[in-house]
Amino acid sequence: MHSASFDFIFVLLLLSDLALLGSSRFTILIRTVSAQGVLLGLLPLMTGEDGNTFRHYALAAGVIALKGVAFPFLLNRARRQAGVSREIQPLVGFSLSLLVGILALAFSIWMGFKLPRPMAGTSHLVVPMSLFTLFSGLFLIVARHKALTQVIGYLTMENGIYAFGVAMAYQEPLLVELGVMLDVFVGVFVMGIAIFHINREFDHIDTRQLSKLGDWPQSAPASPEDGFMEKEML
Amino acid sequence: MILSLLICIPFASAAVAFLNRNGSLRRLQLLLTAAVHFTLTLSTWFHQPAPVLGGWFALDAPGRLVLNVISGLFLTCALYSIAYLRREIPGKHRDMEEGMWFANAPEAIFVGCLLFVLSAMTLVSCSQSFGMMWVAMEGTTLGMAPLIYFHRHHRSLEAVWKYLLICSVGIALALLGNFLLAVSAANHGHGAIPLVLGDLVEKAGLLDVPWLKAAFIFLLVGYGTKMGLAPMHTWKPDVYSEGPAVVAALLSGALTNCAFLGILRIQRVCTAAGLQEFGQGPLILLGLLSMFLAGVFILGQSDYKRMLAYSSVEHMGILVFGLGLGGAGIFGAMLHALNNALAKPMLFFVAGNIREAYKTKSTLLVKGIVHVLPVSGFLWVAGFLASTGFPPFGLFLSEFTILRAALDSHHGILAALFLAFLLLSFVGMTTNSLRMALGKADPEIAGAPRREAWLSILPPLLLFVPLLVFGLYLPSGLQALLHAAAESLGGK
């Protein structure tokens, strides 16, 4: 295992997560996720103990093509169609997001030390960095309002899981490949279609507008008839 | 052979349905596929199907239970869809709550996705490989999304967005759980154990314990999200109230059981590795939390479809609570899974009929169902009695079994909490449902009493009969299956 370059990729992964947590512009967010995709695409090439097989090259090429090129392209297109350039007034501010990120990083490192190393020679950075990427993605989903940022958060989270899978569970046939394809399929195609519909229905992609449904009367008309009557009178 | 057919027939039929241009032919195709699937499923009772693909697909006892539930329920869903799709003619519709206009998704998409989901759920029930099971579970998530967004308006869009985001995160966490399981099975580099249930159980002693624990937690949270356990349940009320009745029935009866099967399988591996007690804490905690939160939200509920959704959260809580208790509690959970898969879809079908007649989802405006819709009214009351655990229905038996398991294992406090939370939702459900069923209907909202279309009352009646029968008498074959399922998990 090329341990030094392996570790280097995980350090870059950490930096890209921090960039995602701290930026508001979609162009930067999309570019960072794309860079993450390329970095992760290189990972399989470094796990082969006795040289790379066809499987390593195929996975690397597939991941770089999908995560590095295709999805950023689709996200960019969605961004242009929606006509948005940045996340304004997120639920948690950008500096505070970075602070939360640092705490999540500390937690991930602690977790990494709790779990035993399954095989000699596995890098110490795998568990903390992939967990941190997972947490960063989850945090973006929760702390941002725009549907586009939430999809980027989902992709980030998926990147963390993929990094873990390639580094630790690669011996399991097809599991990593299927995981990548299907998760990303949800992330971009299905959510992308949903973004398209949200955009058409509401003329923007702010999920705060998606708050009609709830349990208590203040978020919805007390009785459906009231709402109906108002519309009728207008 | 049977297993391959069970998976491939609905899949092929889904592909045909997407291309089929003729509406009534497509509905017939849906019904026929459902009937063929059900017949094949029944044939597994007489003839144990052979494993396929080197043991990746095989039918164990819990899988067979879930397969029967899926297949039987899908047949009633197909029947109900026919009446439903006849009403939902193409073109513009006026929303009954807010008065705006909206269109439906093409019917081909609806029928095609229903069949695709059937295929994916069958795949879940017979996947012995954890990886395949995850893929199939992901397939059900994808297939359900267009079904929820059948009515193309902003409320169902909101529901489908929440569903996709929350369930996809859940499914992604379950994928990490699978990776962790693979690490646990790596066997320190000396010939990894394949992630197939039989192999994992057989060589459970070789699994790496801390990694197995981590895998259990992630799979529980991941599949628990899909199942709708609190606090990951937030998508459920929105989806159940905005999706068509058929979709809510399918989600609440079949898909939740598929997710439960995922949790059962990893708990089985943990039990084999001597970690049964590790899983019990989280299972009991999530179970009681789901029951409590659902009870609180049912109490203040003014939308009857949301109320049913919270009731579903409550019953999912009961399932994992029973599983967490172990012993006879596991048998109780199995029985409860079966009965709940009859009661909840039946209530969703009836709720669909009520909504069609009253044009509202408010519990305050619907009154006198028993007078306006005699059959639906009767089934509504019976369904509520069943769902809140009244004898003679099957759910009484299963809840009682779980309660006794808690008392037998000297968990007095847990038993008391279980009873208290059951009571909480009982109060909320009965006050709301009786107010809706009885009283005098407002003729302006309800219209005159009428005869109901037989296609919209037959499906809930088909579910009502076994629900009543299983409460009074459990056929020996079914009893043996439930016991076998419970025993495979170390229960009684």
Please tell me about this protein's structure:
The complex is a heterodimer of chains A (234) and B (492). Chain A is mainly alpha-helical and 234 residues long. Chain A has one domain. In chain A, 71% of the residues lie in helices and 0% in strands. Chain A contains eight helices and no strands. The C terminus of chain A is likely disordered. Chain B has a domain of 197 residues. Helices cover 75% and strands 2% of the residues of chain B. Chain B contains 20 helices and three strands. Chain B has a three-stranded antiparallel beta sheet, covered by helices on one side. In chain B, a hairpin with a 6-residue loop joins strand 1 and strand 2. At the A-B interface, helix 5, helix 6, helix 7 and helix 8 of A face helix 5, helix 6, helix 8 and helix 9 of B.
List the helices and strands and how they pair.
The complex is a heterodimer of chains A (about 230) and B (about 500).
Chain A: H1 3-22, H2 26-42, H3 54-82, H4 94-114, H5 126-143, H6 147-168, H7 175-202, H8 224-233
Chain B: H1 2-19, H2 23-43, H3 61-87, E1 92-94, E2 101-104, H4 107-126, H5 130-148, E3 151-152, H6 154-184, H7 197-202, H8 209-227, H9 235-242, H10 245-272, H11 276-299, H12 304-325, H13 328-358, H14 369-372, H15 374-387, H16 394-408, H17 412-437, H18 443-446, H19 454-472, H20 476-488
Antiparallel strand pairs in B: 1-2, 2-3
Helix pairs in contact in B: 1-2, 1-4, 2-3, 2-4, 3-4, 3-10, 3-13, 3-19, 3-20, 4-5, 4-10, 5-6, 5-10, 6-8, 6-9, 8-10, 8-11, 9-12, 10-11, 10-12, 10-13, 11-12, 11-17, 12-13, 12-16, 12-17, 13-15, 13-16, 13-19, 13-20, 15-17, 15-19, 16-17, 16-19
